Amino acid sequence: MSRAAELATCTERPGELTRTFCSPAMHSAQQMVGDWFTAAGLQCRLDAATNLIGRFAAAQPAHVRPRTLIIGSHLDTVVNAGRYDGALGVLMGLALVELMAETGLDLPFAIEVIGFCEEEGVRYQTPYIGSRALVGDLTAELLARPDEAGVAMNEALRGFGGSPDRLAEAVLDPASVVAYIEPHIEQGPVLERLELPLGVVRGIAGQTRARFVLTGTAGHAGTVPMDGRRDALAAAAQLVLEVERIGRSQPGLVATVGHLLVAPNAANVIPGRVTLRLDLRHLDDPIRRAAFQEIQERAAAVAAQRSIECRLDWSEDQPAVACDPALVAAIGQCVADAGWQSHEMASGAGHDAVILARRVPVAMLFLRCKGGISHHPDESVTTEDVAAGLDVLVRLVGRLAAAEASS
Ligand SMILES: [Zn+2]
C-alpha cells in the first residue's frame, strides 16, 4: 500500500496522477518499480516494447528449462487517475514473489512480474500496446501512428529504450508459459454490495459498439406545428429509453447511449439530425447479439412511427474472452480455502488479460474497491482486502506448483 502511494508520485501533471506511454513519468515509475524488483531478487529488464519485467528464477537444475508463471497488470494510467488501477496488480505480483522467497519453497517454474507499459490507450488512442507486443500484434500501421504532437509510436519507443525492430523478441512462446494471472481492482460496485473482498473473473464481457444516425427535418421551433414535425431528437430520446429497457431485460447485460450529437443543436430549431452511439456488453455473445438485434428492430419501429430515417451507420463486435476454466476453478478453490465465499463474475471492462488470452491461459482476481469508483483520484482499496488477495495468490502458486511438478 505504501508502494502504491509512492508510485502515484510518478506523474506528468503535478497535483494529479497521469502517467502515459513512454512519458518521463513512466520512466520514473519503471525506475522505482525496477529498484523494488531488484531489491526483491528479481532479474529486471525492459522488453523491446518497454514493458517492465522482473524474473524470479525457478529452483531447477541448469539443464531443465522451466516454464514461467506471469503475474502482472499495467503501469500506465488514464488522465487524473487513481493509484490502484493497474499498479496494484504489478505490486501484488512483487509482494507475492517476496512472500514466496520468504517461504524458501522450491518452485518448478519461474515467476515473471510484468508491468505493462500501456493499457489505457491515452497517448495513441488505442489500448493494450504493451500486451499486444507479447502476442505479436503491434502492426507496422500501429507503429507508424502519430500521437497528438506528431511523434510516431516507433519513434516514441526508440526514445524510451525500446526496440521497434526487435519486437519479435518480446513475443511469448505459449509452450513456455504456465498462465497469466492479473489481479485488478473491480472498478465496479458488485463486490462491495456483496460484502466480499475478492471476485473470481469468469471472463471479460464482449462488446458491441454502434452508431445510429437519425434524420428528420429541421425547422423553425416557433412556426412548425407539433403535428407536422419530424424531430430527430425526440426519436433519439425514445430510442435511448428502449436501449435502457433492453439493457434491464437480461441479467448481466449493460446497454448505454453515452453520446448524442444533435444538429443543428440550436434552442430555436427543431433537431434535424442526431448521431447516437451505443455501447452494449455481456459475457455471453449470443445474448449480446440478440439484444443488439432487438435494439435495431426497436430503432426501426421508432423511426417508422415518427417518419424519421434511421440508419445503422457503423458497428463493431468484440467477442467475449473466457478465462481458463481450470484456472477459474483453482482460484475459486483458493478463495474458499482462505475462508471467503468464492464469487464468479464477469469483467465489464477490458484488461491486458483479454490480449494475452490469445496465446496463454489467463485468469483474473478482482479486489473490492470503495464505491466501485475507478479512473478517478478517489479510487480506494483496503489493506485487508489486498492481504486477502495475496493470501489467495500464495495458495494459487502452491496449487499450480504441485500441478506443474507432477506433469
Ligand atoms: Zn486497469
Question: Any overview of this molecule?
Answer:
The chain has helices at 2-7, 24-39, 87-103, 129-134, 140-143, 153-159, 190-194, 232-248, 285-305, 325-337, 352-356, 383-406, and strands at 43-46, 52-56, 67-74, 109-116, 177-185, 198-204, 206-215, 219-220, 254-263, 269-270, 273-282, 309-318, 321-322, 344-347, 362-367. With 407 residues, the protein is an alpha/beta fold. The strands form three sheets. Strands 1, 2, 3, 4, 5, 6, 13, 14 and 15 form a nine-stranded mixed sheet that branches. It is globular. The model has no long low-confidence stretch (mean pLDDT 96). Zinc ion (ZN) binds next to loops.
Biggest sheet character: 9 strands, mixed
Radius of gyration: 24 Å
- The succession of helices and strands, N to C, reads HHEEEHEHHHEHEEEHEEEHEEHEHEH
Strand segment count: 15
- The poorly predicted ranges are none
Q: Distance between the terminal alpha carbons, to the nearest Å? A: 36 Å
What sort of overall outline do the alpha carbons produce when their principal axes are compared? globular
Number of helices: 12
Structural class: alpha/beta
Provide mean pLDDT, rounded.
Answer: 96
The share of residues in extended strands comes to 15-25%
